[in-house]
Amino acid sequence: MEEKETLSFALAGNPNCGKTTLFNSLTGSTAYVGNWPGVTVEKREGQYKKDPAHNINVVDLPGIYSLSPYSNEEIVSRDFLLQEGLDCIINVVDATNFERNLFFTTQLLELDVPIVVALNMTDVLKKNGEEIDVKALSKKLGVPVVLISALHMEGLDELMKAAVIESHKQRKGRSVCEKSDLESVIGEAYKVYKEEDSRHPLFHAIKALEEDEIEFKKHASKATKVISYKDFESRSAEIRYNYIKNELLPTKKIFKGEEKKKATFSDKIDKVLTHKWFAFPILVLVLFLVFELVFSEDLFFLGAFGVNFGEGYPGFISFGEGILEEAVVPFEGLIWTSGGINGIGIMLQTAVEGVCTIITEGIRMGLMSISSPEWVIGFLCDGVLAGVFAVIGFLPVIMCLFFFFSILEDSGYMARVAYALDRVFRKFGINGKIFLPMVMGLGCSVPAILNTKTLGSDKERLKTIRVIPFFTCSAKLPVITAVTGALAAAIGLNASLTVLGLYVFGMAAAVTAVIIMNKTTVREPITPFIMELPAYHRPQLRAVLAHVWDKAKHFIKKAFTIILFTSVLVWILSNFTWTFNFIPTSETYNLSDSIIVGIGRFMQPIFTPCGFGSQLGSNGYVFSVAALNGLIAKENVVGTLGSMGAVLSGGEVITEGADAMSAILANTNWTLGGMIGYVVFNLLTVPCMAAVGAAKGTISNKKSFWGTILFWLATSYIVSTAVYLMIDYVWTLTIIIPLFALALLGVGYYDKKKKKEEELQNAPN
Questions:
Q1: Which of 618, 610, 664 shows the shortest CA–CA distance to 637?
Q2: pLDDT category, 558, cuts 50, 70, 90?
Q3: Which residues on adjacent β-strands are paired with residue 116?
Q4: In the prediction, which pLDDT does 44 show?
Q5: Quick one: 749 exposed, middle or buried, by C-beta within 10 A (0-12, 13-18, 19+)?
Q6: Residue 223: band (very low, low, confident or very high) from pLDDT cuts 50, 70, 90
Q7: C-alpha span between 684 and 680 (Å, rounded)
Q8: CA torsion sign, 34 to 37 to 38 to 39?
Q9: Structure confidence by residue, pLDDT tens digits, 93-149
Q10: Could you give the C-alpha distances from 340 to 214, 316, 333, 484, 610, in angstroms and in order?
Q11: pLDDT of residue 260
């Protein structure tokens, strides 16, 4: 059998042009995602298998607006397009945003690579009463042009056939700037690179004339030989736009009698969704619906409004009675609980956790039947399997949240959200795009951190990851309600207002931290906000599911080892004494002899400035132990408090968080400031090992990653100390407020100083 020829095609185009939808339609199940070497920009590759004569590898390049150095995405795309072995570039152009997309096309034409232009969203174009003369456009550009609809999978075979044909041709780059007043200067620069036998000499010549930073860095010996031309970049941009306007735009025609349809369906919707006053209330409503469907355990507050759900969904199987300490009902509360109906995400999570419980308890029963030592059973079931299933248990919520966000993104709404947010946050020196991942942190920090990959720079990504945990996720809510509930019972504190205040406090802390980082340690000029607002369209289920699966695989790959290792480690520390004697699970009271309790006692004085250290007395170590367990998952904090409450009160493990806290408060010298400080510490500190794993996979620089861990620890420690002092020792306000004001003045002074230095560095010689 004759061996198939292997071809490499790249999909290149502006953001929101439908490029990823096209990629998913072409590659299907063969697609896989990784990172480009050395950067966190996603690398998407797959195979097109409908051509019997060729093995066609397809690479989906990041969506960019130009080949000038600006962001990681542009640098990655540019490097890939210039490398050897690329057989054809498929330039995806949004036919509904014809003019703006073609600027990038005029840059691609300067490469010595075969090119095919894929005019996408032609179905929307027809609905708008417009058409494009493909033959005329192809003649003007000098490359084939194919009409497609990636969403409806129309014209894809014709596109790939054209790309295969072009890939076997030799193509010489040409520029729309050559037939202009720049012709002679481009010709001279071209000779420099041609004499050096460079690849893509025309492209490099034009970049040298534009005084392109990367060009001078990578090809300094050639670029310095090019005679400079004043304002070449602005003049060449002007020529490109004029060529598009005068030569290419006339190929788009409006059907006779349809001129009045210029206000498209998308335009009409945008009058509401991007409105100055309506945009934010609508966004809040959309986010509320998404979070309710994913995270709610009382969907639409039906339980809170008095609907009686009895004892909840009873489950449909149970086992282990007479063998285990109590019968296991793995799917109890699957659909609803006594408190209300579960959201879709919680239902899926409960179902997956139910399957994990069946496996774990089945293995436990099997080991018990052969009289395995209790420590072996505990290590395998409560250490190893608990760590493995902790990863799997996160997946339903992550995938469900990304499913809804992918629908919003694929429909075109997310572009409008970024646009609306940018109008407000740019006033504070914050790019609006970073706010959406921050808001996702209200549901879960893990998908929020994973979603920062869409941000434009490493610094934007770093700042956002560092403050995402400040947005109180669903796992932290039990900690807050446990403490506030106990305080409400003890001193009559208004629990609802306190919970709301802590949520708002976390958000305010996040925004403040970003502003301070912008002006100090993570400085960067605020990036220009350039974004196409694509036409609204029905999301492609196949593309949405592919995106969700990509995120799930990334999470498993990056977070698995960290979660498994820490789960096993904490189990060992919790179940063995310092002499390495195993503590049987039946001997609850001996937990005080465990290694982790010893570590907790050792660490207790460290938290004295925060209000939950030595001043709580000999039993105050329970808060340190719970905080340590919370590093695995914040859900563990309440569970640990329940176990520790049993140790202190001499009873059984307490399952209700508020009751556990009440038992602990009865045996410690607690104060209001100390308990609020404890909540604030857990709110701002390292969120969980799953989030740490996600951060490690997203932050490319090891120093920045460890700096982020230190940032979480330092911020939570300092802020919780301040909260404790201000509540319990009101007089300290006279010190803390002036210190805070001085710190802000210092930040402002440093910012002004650095701005002057940056202006001097950027000033022309």
A1: 664
A2: low
A3: 90
A4: 81
A5: exposed
A6: confident
A7: 6
A8: negative
A9: 988 888 788 999 999 999 999 999 999 988 777 877 788 999 999 999 999 999 998
A10: 58, 19, 10, 22, 36
A11: 46
